[in-house]
Amino acid sequence: MKDLTLTDAAPASAETGCGCGGCGCGNGVQEPTQDAAGAVVAQYTVSGMTCGHCVKAVTEEVSAIPGVTGVTVDLASGSLTITSDAPVDFDRVVEAVGEAGDYTVD
């Protein structure tokens, strides 16, 4: 599998709201990377989680996104790490987190 570049992850355009953090869109999300096995790894910060139930809800909703193979949520830091077969659309992540409860992706 080839190395990811910004253009592989999402269009580099402020109008797209791509979430990569590299195009000036302001979402502050890091560009996805690849792990040693070739999976795409993306990290986000989720605000509004206060308990284990919140972590479970976010994990379940994000895990249901097609192509997602792993989800790790850390309550203390608000960190959300998604492992997937291909880059996941930022808007789809925001939608899934919103379905889980009154949380936002920063």
What does this protein structure show overall?
- With 106 residues, the chain is an alpha+beta fold.
- The chain has one domain (30-105): Alpha-Beta Plaits (2-Layer Sandwich).
- It has helices spanning 6-9, 52-63, 90-100; strands at residues 33-34, 40-47, 68-74, 79-84, 104-105.
- Strands 1, 2, 3, 4 and 5 form a 5-stranded antiparallel sheet that branches.
- β3 and β4 form a beta hairpin.
- α2 crosses α3 (90-100).
- The chain is globular.
- The chain starts with 5 loop residues before the first helix and ends with a strand.
- Mean pLDDT is 80; it is low at 1-24.
Structure at a glance:
This protein has 106 residues and is an alpha+beta fold. The chain is built from three helices and five strands.
Weakly predicted, low-confidence segments: 1-24
Q: What's the story with the biggest beta sheet?
A: 5 strands, antiparallel
> How many independent structural domains?
1
Determine the fraction of residues in helical runs and give it as a percent range. 25-40%
Sheet/helix structural class: alpha+beta
- At CATH level 2, the architecture is 2-Layer Sandwich
Q: State the CATH class.
A: Alpha Beta
Rg from alpha-carbon coordinates: 13 Å
Helices, by number, come to: 3
Q: How many β-strand runs?
A: 5
In whole angstroms, how far apart are the ends?
Answer: 29 Å
Q: What percent of residues are in strands?
A: 15-25%
Order of helices and strands: HEEHEEHE
Mean pLDDT: 80
Q: Write down the CATH topology.
A: Alpha-Beta Plaits
* Shape category: globular
